[in-house]
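Project standup — Tuesday

K.O.: blocked on the structure for the chain from last sprint. Re-posting the sequence here as requested.
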Amino acid sequence: MRIHRLQISGFGPFAGTEEIDFDRLSAHGLFLLNGPTGAGKTSVLDAICFALYGSVPGARQDGKRLRSDHAEPAQEPAVTCEFSAKGRRFEVTRSPAWDKPSARGKNGFTTQQAKTLLRERTGGTWTDKSARNDEAGAEILALLGMDREQFTRVVMLPQGDFAAFLRSKATDRLELLQKLFGTERFESVEQELSRQAQAAKDEVSHLAGRLELLAARAEAEAARLSLDSSSAPSPENTEARLGWLEEAVAARLEELTAQAGRAEAASTECRNAVGVETLRADRRRKLDSAAARKLAVEQGAQLLGDHLLRLARHRKAEVLQGQLLNVDASAAKARSAATAVESAFTLLSLAAGEDPELAELELHLAPRPAADAARPVAGAATELGRLRSLLAVVEARLPDEDRLLALRKRHSSLLRKREELAAALEQAGKRAKELADERSLLQDGLQDLEQHAATAALRRKEAAAAEELLDVVRRYGSAVATRDLVKVRHDECRDRQLEAKRRWLDLREQRLANAAAELAAKLVHGEQCPVCGSLDHPAPAGGSSGGPELAQEEEEARLVHEAAEAAFALVARELGEASQLVAVLAGQGGDTAEDEALSAAEGARRAAADADGAVKELEAVRLRLGKLETAAAAALESRTGTEGELARTAASLADVSEQSSALDQALAGLRGTHRSLAQRLRALETAVTVLNKAVEAQAHLDRMEAQAAEALDQLELALPAAGFTSAGEAREQLLDVDEAAALEARVRAAQDEEARVAELFASDDVLLALEEKSAGYELDQVRLDALRETAAEALQDARDADLAAGMAARCLASLRGIRAEYEDLAGSARQPAERAQMLAGLADAAAGRGENNYRMSLNSYVLAARLEQVAVAASERLVAMSDGRYLLQHTDAKAARGAKSGLGLEVVDQWTGFRRDTSTLSGGESFMASLSLALGLADVVQQEAGGVEIETLFVDEGFGSLDEQSLEQVMDALEGLRDGGRVVGLVSHVAEMKQRIGAQLQVLKGRNGSTLRISDGADVPV
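H.V.: unblocked you, prediction finished:
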């Protein structure tokens, strides 16, 4: 990378625009950047760094302070750097964020954001590459192959930093080397190894916790059996403890199983004894019950015979029961039919007196029938057929009557619609006239309103300008008052400064005159003059008073003059700024009378408000006109539609009237005396129903009387065969259903009881009970209860013993499962434990812990290799600078008190062959060593950055500590750097350097800021 041109404007101490032609300096290979302290030598390097990376090194990164305090208020700070890299030529221009004066901004300023422009020269013309800060920064970083930290260490070699690096501790060197060589990835490897080691350790801890939990579970399981643990292994020996627990529980299980067997046998024996005694008692109770039931059967034998005889007579009469019931039912039906005929006769007579439909029929109603017979109605069937035919005709014409009603409703609806349409047509005409009148009124004033509204934009601009002028006038008045106050102070300070200067010069002149007299008083004839060396003293100066007191007064006067001059300079700068502000505001119209500006602003505001009101009113009028046009069109369309609809409605009304009249005439005959066909239909349906009931009742009576006569004849024929002489006799022997069922049930129950009693006395239990009774056995309930109590106790003992044995069996199974799980888990935990141990050792070694005797981390190890390369590269130059005496050498000697090692540096004195610490070097030797270290580090970092070629280098300060011979050797080494076209800039204010180096970039300091010029035989300002 080579720098060709640098332009600085309003940046750092440079108030104006300064341009440096580095191609002109490059022609000499080696040039000097010099100037007095504070002039801005370092600011030139800051400008290069800011142009390339958008920031400056160290504590000067505050972008807001990059702008020059000497620059004009409105001047934009900017730095332009033209450079070439990788065979391509670029130009980058950057401007930091700064506050620009503005009348409308907050506190009189507007913040301007940082800007960047990157261009590339292709084919003789500049082409824009990027105008974004981040994008241009990424492009430059890719071109240079170095970030800002590496650039400032490689291209701008700060000797103070490398002198500190030369004497620093290993930890401080690690931080700088890591930034330069970017070895953070090795720290990431260390952290990843530590993370994996901790994860493996956590996994082993988790497995150990699970093993402890299994051991605790085993102890808890065995604790329920209250084992004797006097001979048990220690709980720390978990595997042996688990084996002993399993064996002890197995032995306890055998013991409990034997106890359970014995308890079960005793319980069985007791249960058998209870069973035998219970069976004997049950048999005796069965015998007593059977004897009682036998006695009851013998006592009920006579009653059973009576029941059987009564059932026999019932069954003979039951043969005729169906015919008897048929005769009774037929007679009942005949009586019911006669009653129905009488009711129908009565209803028909009443209906004929009230219903005109029945009254018009040709019916001949007979007189009231006798008590045992009924008379039919003559001609009823014929008239019923005629009524049904008429009913069908009326029912078929019902839809026509519905249609007539619908036509009448439509006729009424059309009449109302015709009236509504006529009213709507009249209203539409009135609405159209109103809309036309309103539109005409609005259009009359539209032209004047448009002309007034057209001036709104102009009036707003005039109002804004008037407001701005009023603000400028007020600020101008304040600025004039401030300037006048400052001018008074300026005149006072100037008077004090001139008086102080006059007194100082007077005292100085007096002291100088007194000095000549003092020298003259010391002259001896024949001896050399200490000033000119002459042996003759023709006119010695006369004596005067003063002495040391006069010199002290002169020094005090000089200090007073300098203080007054500094105060005057501050007030002069303040006066210049105040006068400049007054001039700027006057140029903006600030000298206008405030009353005039205020009146103009108020008038402009009113005019702008009127114009804005006209704009709003014009918008409202145009919107209203649009709505009126839409409403007028809609009203016209509505009126046309209403007229058409009115014509259609009138035609429909005439048609409906004609249809309604014709249909009404056609249905009038069917209605008869009724108001509607529906009423005539309901009357016919009622008449048909009444007449139909009378006809059906008479027919039903005839059928029922025939069935009753036939049933009676059949009964008379069946009585002799059943053994009865009359129907009454048969009815007396019949039982009702419930009584017969109950009698049969009692007979069956008695017979069944007799059979069961016989079966009981034939059963084995009753026969065995008879034998036991003959043998003298008697039932003893007390003895039986005692046997049962004993059996219950034996059963509970057996259950307890079985429960204890089951618990022991479950405990044994659980222990076997826990032991198997423990062995499997212990086997699977060995590999994680070994892995955790391996990872822990690896992490400790990478982090410089454990068996790492040098306490050198992986990152330090890599950086140690880089430092070794740096030491070799630095030694090549240090040998030349130190006349072959010194070498820099990397050392990985173990540090004291357990500190981390690997980044040590030592100096090899080839004259004595001894090695010593770098802190033992003298000031000049330290400068040569640190300069060599910086150049060596630049070479190594350049190689690490991908072999980027660095054609421009800057070496900052430190030459004042060298003697003449050392300076000569250092200059020879620096001369060697420019071999191959490299340009080296030395930053120094050492006087001897100015004499040795002809090409110089000089920084000149002044009250109004610094300036630059190039001196290469012809002093030409930059």
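K.O.: great, moving the ticket to review. The chain has a mean pLDDT of 76. The first helix runs from residue 22 to 26.
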